[in-house]
Records
---
Amino acid sequence: GIQVEQSPPDLILQEGANSTLRCNFSDSVNNLQWFHQNPWGQLINLFYIPSGTKQNGRLSATTVATERYSLLYISSSQTTDSGVYFCAVDLTGANNLFFGTGTRLTVIP
Amino acid sequence: KAGVTQTPRYLIKTRGQQVTLSCSPISGHRSVSWYQQTPGQGLQFLFEYFSETQRNKGNFPGRFSGRQFSNSRSEMNVSTLELGDSALYLCASSLGAGNTPLHFGNGTRLTVT
């Protein structure tokens, strides 16, 4: 089956710092999505990004589908950014997502 | 617009019992999918429904089943509960049949004792 690897597994940042999270996948995919799981367990969709670059406030994401990776950039981090960031890929485009193991981000004041 | 609503938020059941979880998608969304999250296995796909039809099923035993109603609301059922079924069960809805963002509910945390 497809492998979805995220790095780093854990990240601790000082408030205001920038970070880059990486997602590598082992096969061609139909689309890729980034999620943030907050400490209460809710998964928030950050980006739907099968290819190219998107920006939303302090967050941006880039997917290079031909090279099978995606990057999530967080700038000027805030304590509310803490949580686990997941990338998930859809092989068939039928809303069947394979999730990576996540990057646990802790932002300290 | 209301988000994806899952009920109940918490459940405690005993081994051997069965349980039904409910999910109401975002208004207008016709695809509903279910995921199980555990510390050991992470987030795993259970099944997906579109227009009342199950289109995909993950690698879970037949004790896990689901259905979708004509108003797109969905239920999942787990029969003969095992300790290993303790998990956070997440439901997601999506506007289209595919290639559209998934939006998740707050989840149902099931504990099997």
Note: DSSP finds no helices and eleven strands in chain A.
---
Amino acid sequence: DIQMTQSPSSLSASVGDRVTITCRASQSVSTYLHWYQQKPGKAPNLLIYTASNLPNGVPSRFSGSGSGTDFTLTISSLQPEDFATYYCQQSHSAPLTFGQGTRLEI
Amino acid sequence: QVQLVQSGTEVKNPGASVRVSCKASGYTFTTSSFHWVRQAPGHSLEWMGWINPGNGNTKYSQNFQGRVTITRDTSASTVYMELSSLRSEDTALYYCARGRSTTLTTGAGYWGQGTLVTVSS
């Protein structure tokens, strides 16, 4: 199985900050890497697909980059509604696997 | 609008099976795949398997040792996930999620509300 490791596991930040979360795969996943945001008691929400693409409706302050084994999710200017847990997921090889999550706190 | 509505909370004894349903609406059912993902309390997300509802092709995580089966009923626009030989570690919130295409490789853009399955004697 491909292991996905996120860093940091938790992060304290303030409204307006620029934040970067990293995700490393144990082997190459090409660009089959997606990012999700999850708020307490809610289902995950797709933020970025195939490394750098934003679904319709996702604010442009979110961006993703990377390929192969190293990926980043960047939030350019944190808003109050962005405080949540973020997960990366690879879909290069089954079983699809998720990172352990990064909890973004005020 | 796309909606995925899952069946309700389940409480099961160890060794039993559970079947969770996910009814899709708002689009053509066979044009997007489905994933099943679970989340134990306080834990990360765990992928269980996938189905292409157009042809019924499936793929499963071997981490479930053959205990998971995903099926679909195209006439009802519904996918099902059955998990057998339940144990306490299977207590979790189970989600269906719609892929962005019929392939395995796209992210999941729509999610159901989740179904809580509790395994306890």
Note: Strands of chain A lie at 4-7, 10-12, 19-25, 33-38, 45-48, 62-67, 70-75, 85-90, 97-98, 102-105.
